[in-house]
Design goal:
Helices cover 39% and strands 19% of the residues. The protein has a six-stranded mixed β-sheet, with helices on both faces. The termini are far apart. The chain is elongated. The protein is an alpha+beta fold. It is built from nine helices and 14 strands. Helix 1 runs antiparallel to helix 2 and helix 5 packs across helix 8. Helix 7 links the parallel strand 12 and strand 13. The longest helix is centred in the middle third of the chain and has 35 residues. It has two domains: 120 residues, no CATH class; 170 residues, Trna Endonuclease, Chain: A, domain 1. Keywords: Coiled coil.
Length: 342
């Protein structure tokens, strides 16, 4: 193979390093546009350089190379197969040439790609040395800023998981309930052993509770989940370490795909009647979110205590205390648009 006349300036440094190691598997049509590599005999196109017609992009199609040659690998007693010195040198040279080609193409191909040897320290200019040091410092600061950004992003995602109370179901909803109960001052966690599994077991100075959670796409939570809660309360009381029955709480995220202030009652009438007669509490998770949202931005222990007492003492639908007016502080002085109990 040989370089086509119009591509010699662009590809000469690359071809000097990798021409002998290249081999072609494709022959293009003899009328192909942008031929950059051709067979030495017959001048059959085996490489193309195609520039974009409506953008600055370009496509460079070059003959293949063997990227998994035996000399590129070595055996290490601890790590097994690793790159050999020859493999590392090959990859470093290839990357440098690809970057140089990219830069040359970006400048409309008017400049010859800088050979790798031209970047050696012996050819460096004094301003380049200073600028490279500044660039290294800038890259170090950029990496530090990137790590900070990634950590803040992770924290933001963790905090935002509380919003799952508004639209989730299953395990994500259960995890958000645990987080909200913790903000209310409960010691809360799911419980799993070889016999039983409860969505939430939570307690405080005011009492001990056991909760089950259910999310429904476009309807209210029915009495079926209340039966599951009743079964779990009996199983919980049978544990040796439990001496008193826990208060049962059914958490519901009914009509979860609808905006909270547009939802219908999230428990069926039969569920509300049964829960009241059985002294269970019914908590809609959008109301739980409103309380947790307020407490996430303030240390109002009295409000948190009143929320806990409501869950302990109320039968049927639990109504949390009104969000204090000072909740505006959590939205920078703008009244908080959070759902509040009727």
């Amino acid at each position: 193979m040989t370089l086509a006349a119009g591509a010699r300036d662009l590809l000469a440094p690359y071809w000097k390093l990798f021409g002998q190691a290249s081999n072609y598997n494709v022959v293009w049509d003899s009328n192909a546009k942008g031929v950059c590599v051709q067979t030495e005999h017959g001048q059959k196109p085996v490489g193309l350089f195609v520039k974009g017609k409506i953008s600055a992009g370009a496509l460079l199609l070059l003959p293949d190379m063997n990227f998994i040659a035996e000399e590129f690998f070595a055996e290490d007693e601890e790590e097994g197969e690793v790159w050999s010195a020859a493999g590392e040198q090959f990859s470093a040279s290839l990357i440098a040439e690809i970057v140089a080609l990219s830069n040359a193409i970006a400048s409309d191909g008017e400049k010859t790609p800088q050979p790798e040897w031209a970047s050696a320290a012996e050819f460096a200019l004094a301003p380049e040395i200073e600028l490279r040091q500044q660039l290294l410092q800038a890259e170090t600061e950029l990496e530090k800023a990137q790590r900070t950004k990634e950590e803040l992003t992770r924290q933001l995602e963790d905090v935002g998981q509380l919003r799952a109370l508004l639209f989730e179901k299953g395990k994500p909803l259960e995890a958000a309930i645990i987080s909200a109960l913790t903000l209310l001052g409960f010691k809360a966690e799911p419980y799993v052993d070889g016999k039983s599994e409860f969505d939430a077991v939570f307690e405080s100075a005011e009492g001990r509770l056991l909760g089950e959670a259910e999310g429904k796409d476009n309807k209210a939570v029915s009495i079926e989940k209340l039966r599951q809660l009743s079964t779990n309360l009996h199983e919980d009381l049978q544990r040796e370490e439990v001496n008193q029955p826990a208060k049962g709480i059914l958490f519901a995220n009914g009509y979860r795909l609808t905006k909270p202030d547009e939802r219908e009652t999230q428990f069926t009438e039969k569920c509300i009647t049964s829960a009241t007669s059985m002294s269970y509490g019914l908590v809609s998770t959008d109301q739980l979110y409103a309380a947790a949202q307020y407490l996430s931005g303030t240390s109002d222990e009295e409000f948190a205590r009143r929320c806990r007492v409501a869950m302990i003492e109320m039968k049927g639908v639990v109504r949390f205390p009104e969000i204090p007016v000072t909740a505006e502080e959590t939205t920078g002085g703008i009244p908080a648009t959070v759902p509040t109990p009727d």
